[in-house]
């Protein structure tokens, strides 16, 4: 599994998953491993021949091998958290009656 060191010195594990014909998820796993709350992800978009075939599939290993350091750096800088750090505080809607 590849690693990436962010500007704050954190060493993230990099994993390619959820491959499709033209895209894959690049997952940055936080080193604490206790929760996925600190993990981040971004989409890798392929322009290869597989992208034009509805039955084609990207190979996760080939995608990972094709990523340069600059590619991973850009994916990380534009990455998003896997989950929210806080709960949503949405008050109940009084117009909706709860039924059990």
pLDDT < 50 runs, ≥5 residues: none
Instruction: Calculate the mean pLDDT score and round it.
Output: 86
Percent of residues in beta strands?
25-35%
Shape: flat
The helix/strand class is: alpha+beta
Distance linking N and C termini: 48 Å
Count helical runs.
2
Number of strands: 5
Strand order in the largest sheet: 1-2-3-4-5
Counting structural domains, the number is 1
> What helical percentage do the residues reach?
10-25%
The Rg value, from CA coordinates, equals 18 Å
Biggest sheet statistics: 5 strands, antiparallel
Helix and strand arrangement:
Elements: E1 2-5, E2 11-17, E3 23-29, E4 40-45, H1 60-66, H2 69-77, E5 80-81
Task: Give me a quick take on this structure.
The protein is built from two helices and five strands, in the order E-E-E-E-H-H-E. The mean pLDDT is 86.
Describe this structure in words.
This protein starts with a strand and ends in a 19-residue tail after the last strand. It has a 5-stranded antiparallel beta sheet with strand order 1-2-3-4-5. The chain has one domain. The longest helix is centred in the last third of the chain and has 9 residues. It is of the alpha+beta class. Helix content is 16%, strand content 26%.
List keywords for this structure.
alpha+beta; flat; five-stranded antiparallel sheet; 100 residues
